[in-house]
Design a protein that fits this description.
Layout (H helix, E strand, L loop, with lengths): L18 H12 L10 H4 L6 E3 L3 E9 L2 H9 L9 H13 L10 E9 H7 L6 E4 L20 E3 L7 E4 L2 H26 L17 H4 L8 E9 H11 L6 H17 L1 H12 L6 H11 L6 H4 L3 H11 L5
Antiparallel strand pairs: 1-2, 2-3, 3-7, 4-7, 5-6
């Protein structure tokens, strides 16, 4: 998990966006509009700027509403900040987070433009509490951009986890997998263009051929091709997304996006960010039975797995919390 993205907003990376997109970004960043609404200088610094993720992806903030003060205001049902101190706001936000009072966090919203591999998008869309509008391959031709894992993320299937990774692939096996991924994607896109009888820049390939409809030709592309969408959600549901997708057990590719979004969260609502980190993301929730085991241990009783009454898995999870490996 990262903190704020290491990015100079005046020299944004241009490799992850098209020239047209970069012109739009530059034009938007050149504008300045007076407002009476709450704004956040740290987030304004990176507004519209593409934060690179994976090999061709990005996340960028398009718009936002509210700040830490809006959370406090909603909780107190008051108007303006008055004479309250920042420490008062932090204390209230900590209280809200600690006691699962989530409604005030729903008063803040953020809209992101995300470019991501299709297989990551299919995981992401499981979070059904956002408004989403995706690039349509029925109307437009997808770019020839596909994800290839870096060597350090090319792993075998885990032998203990059906949805996880195991040891890294190395040597000729790793090279073979990368070549298969690359050649399959290259061939799929070549056939995609041939079926369309048109390239992404509008050039017709063979005169006298109509070409297949875009809504049909798109089915030939593999899941590592990139798509894009606008994704709008409230602060409460953004934190829920991050709690799951920035977790060490999440798939690396979606975790990379969550890490970038963690930096956005810190810039946007720093008080909420620290409360979330303390009470949710890095905090621990115990079952009644696990809490009972901890109380027995604190009372001096020797408790093992058999006498704990916990399942083997919950016992391991509890031990990882109170006596992590290497401690």
């Amino acid at each position: 998990m990262s903190t704020a993205p290491k990015l100079n907003p005046e020299t944004p990376p241009k490799a992850v966006v098209t020239e047209e997109q970069q012109r739009d970004i530059d034009a938007l960043r050149a504008e300045s509009s007076p407002t009476r609404r709450a704004t956040v200088p740290a987030l304004e610094e990176i507004l519209y700027t593409a934060i690179p993720v994976l090999d061709h992806g990005f996340v960028r903030v398009v718009d936002y509403m509210g700040d830490d003060g809006a959370v406090v205001q909603a909780a107190r049902v008051s108007y303006g900040r008055g004479t309250r101190r920042a420490t008062d706001d932090a204390g209230l936000i900590n209280y809200l987070m600690r006691h699962w009072h989530t409604t005030p966090f729903e008063m803040c919203e953020i809209k992101l433009h995300v470019k991501l591999p299709i297989f990551v998008a299919r995981q992401w869309i499981r979070h059904r509490t956002a408004n989403v509008n995706e690039y349509s391959a029925r109307y437009s031709i997808l770019d020839k951009e596909f994800y290839l894992p870096a060597a350090e993320h090319l792993s075998a299937q885990s032998t203990s986890n059906r949805q996880g990774r195991g040891e890294l692939l190395t040597g000729s096996e790793a090279a073979r997998v990368i070549e298969l991924l690359r050649s399959d994607a290259e061939r799929a896109y070549e056939h995609y263009e041939k079926m369309l009888n048109e390239t992404a820049d509008g050039h017709h390939i063979e005169a006298g051929h109509q070409g297949l409809a875009r809504e049909l030709a798109r089915m030939n592309l593999s899941l590592n091709f990139y798509t894009q969408w606008y994704w709008k959600t409230d602060l409460h549901n953004l934190m829920h997304f991050l709690r799951l997708r920035a977790d060490a057990h999440a798939q690396y590719e979606i975790r990379a996006y969550a890490d970038a979004m963690f930096g956005i969260l810190e810039r946007w609502v720093p008080l909420t960010y620290h409360a979330f980190l303390n009470y949710r993301f890095a905090g621990v929730q115990l079952s009644r039975d696990a809490f009972g085991v901890v109380r027995r241990m604190l009372a001096g009783e020797k408790v093992d797995r058999e006498s704990s009454g916990l399942s083997a898995r919950e016992w391991r999870e509890l031990m990882d919390v109170i006596a992590p490996p290497g401690s």
